[in-house]
Design a protein that fits this description.
The protein is mostly helical. The chain folds into two domains: 9-67, no CATH class; 91-137. The chain has helices spanning 21-30, 38-48, 52-61, 91-100, 108-118, 122-132; strands spanning 35-37, 65-67, 106-107, 136-137. The strands form two sheets. It has a two-stranded parallel ribbon. Strands 3-4 form a two-stranded parallel ribbon.
């Protein structure tokens, strides 16, 4: 769910939802200015053995902004995204992306899995998707 300007991230969730206290403590320790980078959120998830989605939800409930998506899709200044289509795409990346599509889109999780399996950067997969006109969906942190 996207937010309109001025809305709080916590409104994406029910009014009775509360932040997980252990995650909240870690977020407060590791962030500043009510912003949490994607990589930090994933590190917290790994450390606490929680899902990235749970960390993202807690960040939302704290009204912290998720920034610096590791796929380059959101949270960068002055522009929101930094991913740009590349002129050349590795054939193995293109094939892996094509094979993992669901309804013409690639999930964030599949993008990460492809990068890991092919030993390329996450941005390489994201660049390929941009060049191919493929949207990445289902952020593991719940940002999109």
């Amino acid at each position: 769910m996207s937010l309109h300007k001025g809305k709080k991230f916590s409104t994406k969730h029910g009014p009775d939802e509360k932040p997980d206290t252990s995650i909240k403590t870690e977020i407060l320790k590791q962030t500043k200015n009510e912003k949490i980078p994607c990589a930090v959120a994933f590190e917290i998830a790994k450390t606490l053995q929680m899902s990235p989605e749970t960390v993202g939800k807690t960040a939302d409930l704290m009204n912290f902004k998720l920034i610096k998506c590791q796929l380059g899709l959101f949270g960068y200044q002055p522009k929101k995204k930094i991913v740009k289509p590349q002129d050349s795409i590795k054939v193995d990346v293109k094939d892996a992306v094509s094979d993992a599509l669901s309804q013409g889109r690639l999930s964030c999780k599949h993008a990460w899995d492809i990068a890991s399996r092919l030993r390329v950067s996450k941005m390489t997969v994201s660049w390929a998707c941009e060049a191919l006109g493929i949207k990445i969906k289902d952020c593991q942190l719940g940002a999109f």
